[in-house]
């Protein structure tokens, strides 16, 4: 998607209001909760604290952009589903995006590595156990998490 937006718009507001991509959520507005996490040129970024103009020309990927070309879930998204890693679902897009960046390196990660990588993503429902289980399962299968 390419579209113009007002220079004062954050990337999150541009995604939601201009591009109509609603999976990144507005949580804290300060870049500390992870609900708005997107990949900017492959790096997890809090879209609520970045101006859209700052990422002109960059590749922006949200959780919905991680799926397969045929519209099916990516391996990581499937693992989240299979391990019941979402309850209310508010944090899920940001968690999946942050996890996709982590597992895309193809290496195995300890549970502590996963906890550290997700430290900026808050979840009030799951206690993180199912989320970590899902990411571990995707890593164990050798799935990069990104279609």
Q: Please summarize the sheet with the most strands.
A: 3 strands, antiparallel
Mean pLDDT across every amino acid position: 90
Compute the CA-based radius of gyration.
Answer: 15 Å
Overall form: globular
How much of the sequence lies in strands comes to 5-15%
Strand order in the largest sheet: 2-1-3
Low-confidence stretches: none
Termini separation comes to 18 Å
User: What is the number of strand segments?
Assistant: 3
Order of helices and strands: HEEEHHHH
Classify the helix fraction into a percent range: 25-40%
The chain-level structural class is mainly alpha
Continuous helix count: 5
Structure description:
- By secondary structure, the chain is mainly alpha-helical.
- Helix content is 32%, strand content 7%.
- The protein is globular.
- Helix 2 (75-82) crosses helix 5 (129-140).
- The protein has a 3-stranded antiparallel β-sheet, covered by helices on one side.
- It has 5 helices and 3 strands, in the order H-E-E-E-H-H-H-H.
How are the secondary structure elements laid out?
Layout: H1 11-18, E1 37-40, E2 43-46, E3 60-61, H2 75-82, H3 92-103, H4 111-117, H5 129-140
Antiparallel strand pairs: 1-2, 1-3
Provide a brief overview of the structure.
The chain has helices at residues 11-18, 75-82, 92-103, 111-117, 129-140, and strands at residues 37-40, 43-46, 60-61. With 147 residues, it is mainly α. The chain has a 3-stranded antiparallel beta sheet, with helices on one face.
Descriptive tags:
147 residues; mainly alpha; three-stranded antiparallel sheet; 3 strands
């Amino acid at each position: 998607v390419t579209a113009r937006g007002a220079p004062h718009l954050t990337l999150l507001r541009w995604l939601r209001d201009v591009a109509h991509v609603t999976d990144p959520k507005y949580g804290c507005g300060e870049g500390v909760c992870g609900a708005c996490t997107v990949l900017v040129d492959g790096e997890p970024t809090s879209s609520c604290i970045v101006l859209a103009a700052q990422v002109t020309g960059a590749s922006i990927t949200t959780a919905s952009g991680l799926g397969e070309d045929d519209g099916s879930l990516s391996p990581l998204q499937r693992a989240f589903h299979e391990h019941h890693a979402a309850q209310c679902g508010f944090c899920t897009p940001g968690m999946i995006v942050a996890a996709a960046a982590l597992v895309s390196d193809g290496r195995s990660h300890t549970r502590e590595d996963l906890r550290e990588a997700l430290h900026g993503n808050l979840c009030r429902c799951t206690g993180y156990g199912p989320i970590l289980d899902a990411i571990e399962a995707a890593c164990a299968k050798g799935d990069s998490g990104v279609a």
